[in-house]
Each structure stands twice: as structure tokens, then as C-alpha cells.
Write a structure and sequence with these properties.
Shape: elongated
Structural class: mainly alpha
Radius of gyration: 21 Å
Order of helices and strands: HHHHH
Number of strands: 0
Number of helices: 5
Distance between the termini: 40 Å
Oligomer: single chain
Length: about 150
């Protein structure tokens, strides 16, 4: 489970950095079905691209920790879920978006529960290894003192 969590954290981080960079560089051209809403919305899109790039860097930081901090995983997964909830709210307020936005919304709502479920896997694994090493060390100390 810890290996899966690490892989998913890396995958999320790399994907988000790339997606954020594309949105930052290309603005509204990166949004399927968006058309050209003008400079104000393009500016907003590029701003959010930079934020998303930073969000991806946060996932990469998490993936590099040992153990992977469960609180950080839950925080980042919760933020991702809020993004999907925002898409749902938009759908309810303005109608059905482009099919690609629906796919993204599905990912944003489906992945966070998996991250929450896996969030403590690495901490548990590291803790179990430490306990086993300490136990082995105590057993060795007992056998040499007899």
C-alpha cells in the first residue's frame, strides 16, 4: 500500500505540474470547448495555471518525504476534491460542460477517497519496520546477556 501511495503522489504531482504549466503558458487555449472569452478570463486561467503548478509541486514534496505525511496527503486530496465539487456546482448553476470537463470532474471526485484510504500507509509501514528493528535489537541484547 505504501508503494502505491508513493506512486500515486508522484503521478499526481507530475501531472499537475505539467497541466499547470500548460495552462500558464497557453491560457484559455488549454481549455477544450472554452472559446475565447477575452483577456480577463485568460488572465484568470493563467493565474490558476500557476496555482495548479504549485499544487503539483506540493504533491512532489509529499512524495519525497519518508514517511509520506498522512496529514499532507489528506489536505491535498481534500483540495482536489473541492475542485471536483466546484465543477459540480458550476454544472448545477450553468449547465453541462464540455465532455472533457466531466471526465476531469469524475477523476477529481473519485481519486480523493483513494488517497484518504491510503494516506497513512507509508507511516504505518515505517512504524512497523522501526518496531520490528527495535524488537530484534532487544531480542539480540537478551540473548547476549544470558
Amino acid at each position: 500500500m505504501a508503494r502505491l501511495l508513493k506512486w500515486l503522489a508522484w503521478a499526481m504531482g507530475i501531472a499537475d505540474v505539467l497541466i499547470g504549466a500548460v495552462h500558464l503558458a497557453t491560457g484559455m487555449d488549454s481549455v477544450p470547448g472554452a472559446g475565447s472569452p477575452g483577456p480577463t478570463v485568460d488572465s484568470l486561467m493563467r493565474f490558476f495555471g500557476a496555482i495548479f503548478l504549485g499544487y503539483g509541486l506540493a504533491w512532489i514534496w509529499v512524495a519525497r518525504q519518508s514517511p509520506i505525511p498522512s496529514r499532507a496527503v489528506r489536505l491535498l486530496a481534500g483540495i482536489f476534491f473541492l475542485g471536483g465539487a466546484g465543477r459540480l456546482l458550476s454544472w448545477a448553476a450553468l449547465g453541462r460542460p464540455n465532455w472533457f470537463q466531466l471526465v476531469l470532474m469524475g477523476i477529481e471526485l473519485a481519486l480523493p477517497p483513494l488517497y484518504f484510504w491510503l494516506s497513512a500507509a507509508d507511516e504505518r509501514e515505517v512504524s512497523a519496520r522501526r518496531w520490528k528493528a527495535e524488537e530484534s535489537s532487544r531480542a539480540e541484547a537478551r540473548s547476549t546477556s544470558q
